[in-house]
Design a protein that fits this description.
Elements (H helix, E strand, L loop, with lengths): L1 E2 L1 H6 L3 H4 L6 E6 L4 E8 L3 E9 L1 H4 L7 H23 L8 E7 L3 H18 L3 E5 H7 L11 E6 L4 E6 L5 E6 L5 H11 L7 H9 L22 H16 L6 H26 L4 E5 L6 H14 L2 E3 L3 H4 L3 H12 L4 E2 L25
Parallel strand pairs: 2-5, 5-6, 7-10, 10-11
Antiparallel strand pairs: 1-12, 2-3, 3-4, 7-8, 8-9
Helix pairs in contact: 4-5, 6-13, 7-9, 8-10, 9-10, 10-11
The structure holds 5'-O-[(R)-(carboxyoxy)(hydroxy)phosphoryl]adenosine and zinc ion.
5'-O-[(R)-(carboxyoxy)(hydroxy)phosphoryl]adenosine binds next to helix 7 and helix 8.
């Protein structure tokens, strides 16, 4: 729920005194296994971006354990927020707003960031902006590039695989989504079957680059014209290939398997993303989410976009995986429209992206 403009303007805070181009947002991200805080100026300049990963704790369980994730966030969140403000060279009193990931994510993990954000916003009497995690992944691009609308975002992370059309700034329309596993999830499950550590994506990426050839594996194109994805059939085909080889006592060419899996994933992502760009007359293609760090995917998309004269934007690796800077960039869309969140805001593990779009307003183009 957002606070109306009149109420928003009644607050006499640093946000009112500073223009939105200079506004300092302290952003917090705790949706999964990274505790992160960042200070972003004017929605674009990263003054600090502190990320504390819990991977070392979860790795022995082969995946993220929600209860442990929440406890680790509780242990570190205050220190990480303080470090972010210190590294930014500002004081808490100079902050214009507090942004926090509201969803999607693990509910217990989200709650830790939300409680910290609410407490700070209340103590400092500045606006709170509950922010969508995927909007953050998409607007990570705005921290390093100039976005031109309409644009198409290919979101590939551990929990999401989506094609999102942005007709204009801050307005999201999901045109395709996975019907089963997210692409990062498929990477992690395949890696687990190959006894590679969590998170498996980077390991499969490396293994695939060492292969002499690719194992032939299926591609799920779904119905003609569909922008949806499905990776569970491919994952099952990989698991079946591993089991059959082991049962027959044959050696498994793990690199060829990793390359076959990766090629199958990339083929479908690239073909559907480029078709969506053409159909919706998008001026740019934005790659975002943790799997955007995949070298094979980056290279394949770059080559195809180059051939077709499509401008491709990819954030640097540290802005592809979960971080708070991206949450600050997305939150600025709402701050400059005075579309703040009420202090009774709740974590929403399944927050729909479209519902987080900016709403029509006075002077700022929507
Ligand atoms: O966006 P992210 O940091 O967290 C979520 O919001 O899910 O994405 C994490 C996912 C994991 O599944 C991880 O295996 C995958 O991104 N990933 C990769 C690579 N680096 C991270 N997948 C493929 N290739 C990579 N190089
Ligand atoms: Zn993410």
């Amino acid at each position: 729920m957002t606070i109306d403009k009149e109420t928003a303007q009644a607050h006499t805070t640093a946000a009112d005194e500073r223009s939105f181009d200079d506004a300092l947002i302290l952003a917090i991200e705790t949706s999964c296994d990274e505790t992160s805080a960042a200070v972003i100026q004017g929605g674009k300049r990263i003054l600090s971006n502190v990320v504390s990963s819990q991977i070392d704790v979860h790795v022995r369980f082969g995946g993220v354990v929600p209860e442990i994730a929440s406890r680790k966030h509780v242990e570190t969140i205050t220190l990480i927020m303080e470090q972010a403000v210190r590294e930014a060279g500002c004081s808490m009193r100079e902050l214009s707003a507090i942004a926090v990931t509201q969803g999607p994510g693990l509910v217990g993990a989200l709650l830790v960031g939300i409680v910290a954000a609410k407490s700070l916003a209340m103590a400092l009497d500045i606006p709170l902006i509950g922010t969508h995690h995927i909007a953050g992944h998409i607007y990570a691009n705005a921290l390093v590039h100039e976005l031109r609308y309409p644009c198409m975002a290919l979101v590939v992370s551990g929990g999401h695989t989506e094609l999102v059309l942005l007709e204009s700034e801050g307005r999201f329309q999901v045109v395709g989504r996975t019907r089963d596993d997210a692409v990062g999830e498929a990477y992690d499950k395949v890696a687990r079957a190959l006894k590679l550590p969590y998170p498996g994506g980077p390991h499969i990426d490396k293994l695939a680059s060492q292969a002499g050839h690719a194992m032939e594996l299926p591609r799920a194109w779904l119905e003609q014209g569909s922008y949806d994805f499905s990776f569970s059939g491919l994952k099952s085909a990989v698991l079946a290939a591993i089991n059959q080889t082991r049962m027959k006592g044959l050696p498994l060419d793990e690199a060829a398997l990793a390359r076959g899996f990766q090629e199958s994933v990339i083929d479908v992502l690239v073909v559907k993303a480029l078709r969506a760009v053409r159909e919706y007359d998008a001026r740019q293609l934005l790659l975002c989410g943790g799997v955007a760090a995949n070298r094979g995917l980056r290279a394949a998309l770059a080559a195809r976009c180059d051939e077709e004269g499509i401008e491709l934007l990819i954030p640097p690796g540290n802005l592809c995986t979960d971080n708070a800077a991206m949450i600050g960039a997305a939150a600025h869309l709402k701050l400059k429209r005075s579309q703040w969140t009420e202090l009774d805001m709740k974590a929403d593990p399944a927050l729909p992206l479209e519902s987080w779009s900016v709403t029509a307003c006075g002077t700022v183009p929507c």
